[in-house]
Each structure stands twice: as structure tokens, then as C-alpha cells.
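From the methods appendix. Each design record in this collection lists the discretized structure first, followed by the designed amino acid sequence. Records were kept in a plain field format so they could be parsed without special tools. The example shown here is representative of the layout used throughout.

RECORD:
C-ALPHA CELLS (153 positions):
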């Protein structure tokens, strides 16, 4: 007897912190949640899934056999539209609703940008003060410059 494989569905999977929210291709809501929890490092029961497309007509998936994460080109093939994605945070629109990728990667990237900017500003301030010059160990010390210099010399 031949077993009938279930149709692949598309789920929107979220957690309370919304750090890693994204679409998962899976055969069931339970499978989508379990995959997301395991892949993203959440505990059992931390994720929720909502059915978005009940019968995905794709034969091949970029990230391998479901359960797996959806990629933008697969979402576009299903009729999603780009909703103004910004670097490190994808956003799509489908049937009048906008879905935005979890923010953890976006927050990490923003922090890196702020650190790089702060480092650049620090270097500019140093350059404005002039180059730092190491003391010449061969040069004679000026009078009173050293607290260890004998008095009266």
C-alpha cells in the first residue's frame, strides 16, 4: 500500500521575543514549530505557528526538504511582494498583511554599525589632537621632569 505524502504548507512561526520570526515550509503546524524551536535554540513550546498557504505548489526548496526556512524567491513564487526590506531585516506582504523578519540579526547589525561609528569618531578625535609621540629613551630628561631625579641637579 502506497502512503500518501502530506502536502507541504507554509507557516509563519513566531516566539514571544520575536527575535527569529520567519516562514517555515512544513507538513504540519507541529512540525513547523518543532523545527523553529530546534533550529533557533528555543525551548519546546516557545514557538507558535500560523498557516499561511495550505498547499505549496513548489517541487524544490532552496534549504532542502521541509521542514525548512523559506527564502524570498520562494515567497515571491507564491505571490508575496517585497514590503520594503531593509538590510538584515526582510519584510513581505501577502493578502494584505505585512510580515517582518525577527529582529535579532537586525539588532546585532545595528549595534555593529554604532560600534564602528564610535570607533571612527574616537580615531578622528585622536587625529585632531595630533599624533601621539613615544618618548625618546635616548633624549636627556628635562629638569624636574622625573620625580626620581636628584634634587639640585
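DESIGN:
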Amino acid at each position: 500500500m502506497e502512503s500518501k505524502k502530506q502536502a507541504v504548507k507554509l507557516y509563519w512561526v513566531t516566539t514571544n521575543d520575536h527575535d527569529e520570526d520567519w516562514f517555515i515550509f512544513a507538513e504540519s503546524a507541529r512540525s513547523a514549530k518543532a523545527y523553529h524551536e530546534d533550529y533557533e535554540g528555543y525551548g519546546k513550546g516557545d514557538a507558535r505557528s500560523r498557516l499561511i498557504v495550505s498547499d505549496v505548489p513548489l517541487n524544490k526548496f532552496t534549504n532542502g526538504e521541509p521542514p525548512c526556512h523559506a527564502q524570498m524567491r520562494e515567497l515571491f513564487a507564491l505571490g508575496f511582494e517585497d514590503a520594503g526590506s531593509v538590510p538584515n531585516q526582510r519584510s513581505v506582504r501577502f493578502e494584505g498583511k505585512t510580515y517582518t523578519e525577527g529582529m535579532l540579526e537586525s539588532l546585532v547589525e545595528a549595534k555593529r554599525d554604532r560600534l564602528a561609528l564610535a570607533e571612527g569618531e574616537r580615531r578622528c578625535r585622536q587625529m585632531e589632537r595630533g599624533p601621539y609621540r613615544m618618548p625618546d629613551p635616548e633624549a636627556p630628561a628635562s629638569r624636574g621632569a622625573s620625580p626620581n631625579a636628584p634634587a639640585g641637579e
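APPENDIX NOTE: DSSP finds three helices and seven strands in the chain.
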